[in-house]
């Protein structure tokens, strides 16, 4: 089962890669550097999926105390932080030639950066608590706090950047809506979500095995 | 605007490298666990 | 003992301990004075830059004091081996949270009043009409910090890297509260009425409600062991 997910993800990534360079057009204003979007956006969106799953798994764990829910939350957190970190890095690499800067404090970048640090803290908390049962409980609480904080982060940062200040930055790769851009993006998005699922499945299996061995 | 293929390569390369490293880390830990399990009767 | 009475008992105990030892209070006051001096050294002569930076620096002082105060919330229980006492306490443990929250809030507000007073005096700031609005914003912001801070303090109380992990966990989560308070303070100090910063106030109210309710619901889970 895990293996099939792996093969599917691999196939998806391969097709996605081909489409990103073969099907997708050369962008008018930015040139070929815009092709970075086909990894950057899927990475970020897949990380949102990861954090959403983490939130749900945290609630389920507190309600039912199933160790499986805790393992899913743990794995999702790991892969989520991995993906969002890569997303930020690729976004930065994309931004340098197009915006002229590695970083800017616009609403979206700031929000994602806060997200990254929040969930990095989640992983740190996991790493610091030795007792697995206590770690599961505490991380579930933190997971829920973080999830509920996300809308607050979104609004506060958005208001900070847009009130009394016109939006000055254009997001690279504005959507023209053409299918030759949309399809490569969707395929890559699917591929990265499959990759997330494969990584989580494998990580959960590893966590379960580790628990059995140390029991 | 020039194509900046260097940046494209950097972005895709970094992504591939990091994901590959994570994948291999998973594989390695599974192997270690297997050897640990086999040592215990 | 009724729920409310238990909560108040805890708040009262913490404040009484603090009144006698004054450990935390002294540290916070000293730290605030330090902040005042450094601020004076860097910006004292330039009124315009001072006015521009004041809201941020003020809240920086409040936050760092908060980290100090909140980090020590469960210090007494830890040091004097009373942690098990907390775990074994009968009834709804969220009363403990409420008590700790009230105690922390009182301490933090006291220090903030002191810091604000010192800033007003030493930098000749005219609060004037801004004061009532400022009080609202400071109260809401402090509640936000204390609400999550007390919960996280309990979570990190018995962990190895407690002093490092507590701010690392708290600060990212508190960004919305910090943004809202600083921007609202900025607006108020520039002479705008409270209505002009209403969206920030609403965000603070929403945040405070979420944090307090969530903490009340999950505190039992944290004190399971």
Overview of the structural elements:
The complex is a heterotrimer of chains A (215), B (41) and C (225). With 215 residues, chain A is mainly α. Chain A has helices at residues 2-23, 37-64, 67-99, 107-128, 132-162, 179-214. The two termini of chain A are 25 Å apart. Chain B has one domain (12-41). Chain C is mainly α and 225 residues long. Chain C has one domain (3-222). The longest helix of chain C is centred in the middle third of the chain and has 29 residues, at 94-122. The mean pLDDT of chain C is 87. The chains are: A mainly alpha (215), B mainly alpha (41), C mainly alpha (225). Chains in contact: A-B, A-C.
Number of helices of chain C: 10
Per DSSP, the total helix count of chain A is 6
Query: Could you say which overall geometry of chain C the principal axes of the C-alpha atoms support?
Result: globular
**Low-confidence sequence ranges of chain A:** 165-174
Average residue-wise pLDDT of chain C: 87
Distance between the termini of chain C: 23 Å
List how many beta strands of chain A DSSP finds: 0
Instruction: Please indicate the percent range of residues of chain C in DSSP E strands (runs of 2 or more).
Output: under 5%
What is Rg of chain C?
Answer: 18 Å
What about the largest sheet of chain A? none
Alpha carbon gyration radius of chain A: 19 Å
- CA-based shape of chain A: globular
Can you give the helix content of chain A as a percent range? over 70%
Which runs of chain C of at least 5 residues are low in confidence (pLDDT < 50)? none
What's the story with the biggest beta sheet of chain C?
Answer: none
**Content of β-strand of chain A:** under 5%
Give the chain pair forming the largest contact, with residue counts.
A-C, 29 and 29 residues
SSE pattern of chain C, N- to C-terminal: HHHHHHHHHH
Question: Any idea how many domains of chain C?
Answer: 1
Task: Provide the number of structural domains of chain A.
Answer: 1
Order of helices and strands of chain A: HHHHHH
